[in-house]
Amino acid sequence: MADSMTEQADLLRDGRRARGDASRRAVMSYATDLTSIEGLDGLSIGRLAEVSGHSKSSIAGLFRNKEGLQLATVAAGRAVFTAVVVEPAREHARGLARLVALMHHVIEYSRTRVFAGGCFFAAVSADYDSKSGPVRDAVRDAMEDWYVYIEIQVRAAVDAGQLELDTDGISQLAFTLPALYEQANARSLLYSSDQPYLLARRGMRSVLQAAGADPGMLTLLES
Asked: pTM to 2 decimals?
């Protein structure tokens, strides 16, 4: 009897946990999309309840307060970015092939509007680049990991003889590539046009070829 009651209690806990996880995922889908449009500063329990159809009390139960909601939203945005941009690129060898794949996938992530407002991290960075606190730290850490990962691929390409760059050149290329993407994202949103993405691809090919890349390895960046 005792074992049966314990099993039933475990099943109830597992069911509640599963329902809680499903609710959290559903709310996070609304939260990340809303943030990409209105920014992280505008994200609140009340605003999220308004757009998601969930009650304020249920959202508060999941995230406790506005800061908890914002931190969870940054983590959810980061998870989507990793799944859509980083993981597919890992199918390619480290170095130039993976670097090119990263740039291709990040452009497509923005162009196809994985988030309704374009790049999630472009939106949240604009809100928190001059502030302090846990939310800003979470945004900065996510962006830093992305930028460092790009530089790691540039260095790997240099070590493999796929690019010809000195130390300063490595840093410059690792800065220029995401800068081209970020400008394309911003201009595409402002002008409702795909043309900025074509220009970004062209710019990426140009700087990579100037760094010694074999044009045959840049096909993913063709228009």
From this structure: 0.87
